[in-house]
Design brief:
This protein is of the alpha+beta class. It has one domain: RelE-like (YaeB-like fold), CATH 3.30.2310. It contains two helices and four strands; from the N terminus they run H-E-E-E-E-H. Strand 3 and strand 4 form a beta hairpin. It starts with a helix and ends with a helix. The mean pLDDT is 95.
Length: 69
Amino acid sequence: MGLLKHLIDEHLIKTGTVPDQYKPHLLQGNWKPHRECHVQPDFLLIWDIDLETNELILVRCGSHAELFG
């Protein structure tokens, strides 16, 4: 969880995204307009930014199987 906390505190809160090494990208389909990154190879974080309130919304985290069934 140390890396997850670091990504949230040092990147998402400050910039709204994470470094490219974590493969941040927009999700499609029912998950649109959320964003996702790979904290570890099979540990993902899904988030969104509310542009009206400028709030970071942490949606879910977990493995591909846990998140997308």
